[in-house]
């Protein structure tokens, strides 16, 4: 299962050309947006709360964690800390995947999460 997730991640990246956007989350502030492209959300300083549309779970991203987000997905992030924290969104240039490849790359992380949850 992990090997397939690595392949999907590699397929998403495709090219080395990337765009990194940094943003700041103020204490007890919630930011929300709908993703225009597949992206990787990274947090380096403190814990960040992530909520994803259609996902029954919320996630605490700890420093160094990366969340794979899919195009069209709506997300909410917030911070519970005492000071602002910096996070980043990384997107990669188009990989030339077929429509079926893009569909698989978009749904595979959810399939992997649900199969891991059913194992417990």
Key descriptive features of the protein:
four-stranded antiparallel sheet, 120 residues, alpha+beta, disordered N terminus, Jelly Rolls
Short précis:
This protein has helices at residues 2-13, 99-118, and strands spanning 18-25, 30-34, 39-43, 48-52, 58-61, 66-69, 74-78, 85-92. With 120 residues, the protein is an alpha+beta fold.
Explain what the structure shows.
With 120 residues, this protein is an alpha+beta fold. The chain has a domain at 15-96: Jelly Rolls (Sandwich). Helix content is 27%, strand content 37%. It is built from two helices and eight strands. The strands form two sheets. It has a four-stranded antiparallel beta sheet. The chain has a four-stranded antiparallel beta sheet with strand order 2-7-4-5, with no helix packed on it. Helix 1 runs antiparallel to helix 2. It is globular and about 45 Å long. Mean pLDDT is 80; it is low at 1-8. InterPro entries: DUF2917. It holds the Pfam family DUF2917. It comes from Caballeronia arationis.
């Amino acid at each position: 299962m992990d090997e397939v997730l690595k392949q999907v991640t590699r397929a998403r990246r495709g090219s080395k050309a990337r765009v990194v956007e940094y943003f700041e989350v103020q204490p007890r502030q919630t930011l929300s947006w709908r993703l225009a492209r597949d992206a990787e959300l990274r947090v380096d300083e403190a814990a960040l709360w992530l909520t994803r549309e259609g996902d029954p779970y919320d996630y605490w991203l700890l420093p160094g964690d990366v969340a794979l987000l899919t195009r069209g997905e709506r997300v909410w992030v917030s911070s519970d800390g005492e000071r602002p924290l910096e996070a980043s969104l990384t997107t990669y240039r188009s990989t030339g995947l077929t429509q079926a490849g893009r569909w698989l790359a978009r749904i595979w992380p959810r399939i992997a999460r649900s199969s891991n949850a059913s194992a417990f």
